[in-house]
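Figure caption, in words: inputs first, then the predicted bound structure.
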Amino acid sequence: MTELDHLFEKNRKWAANITAKDPLFFKTLSSQQSPQYLWIGCADSRVPANEIVDLMPGELFVHRNVANIVIPSDLNCLSVLQFGVEVLKVRHIIVCGHYGCGGVMRAMGNETLGLSDYWLRHIKDIYHLRRQEVHQAGGEEERVDKLCELNVMEQVQNVCRTNIVQGAWERGQEISVHGWIYGLKNGLLKNLNVSVDSIQQIPPVYRLKDADNG
Ligand code: CO
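Bound structure (cobalt (II) ion present):
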């Protein structure tokens, strides 16, 4: 017996349940994956991507990090993005934040955490640039939630500023990038209505020449 035996036990029950409903499920899935959606979300344990949208294995390609940030120097996120767009050919990219995000909350304060301070700096910059909007949102909780929304909107733009997404658009591949936010208190998703599906919707300075046909 080990401390984690219960997880293996849960896993066996989970696999048995799925196989009972569809005996060929794992066999079929193991030979290929063709998800339509790429999910970029927070690593928070309360925001499990597949469960929230009730999708089965094979239906959602997922990248998660602290506070769902997309930055152009993060090879991990960019590799997921490239694989999702160029190999799996996902149709939709969903950046999904959540209200009450601990990373966003930390970025609004002055406490240092060590290495993750560098990561959260990206959110601190958004906070600083848009502090008026954030402060007008109301009390402390409303301010955090406002910055959670603004962070999602910024990350949607960051996805669109990559040569991966712009290159796909140039090749005629249909991709829409969406910004959603999840409510920890009610389990519901909200569409922030900031979807982008063409290079014309991006500020000119971020349009890459090759992707924009000059
Ligand atoms: Co979070």
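The two ends are 64 Å apart (CA to CA).
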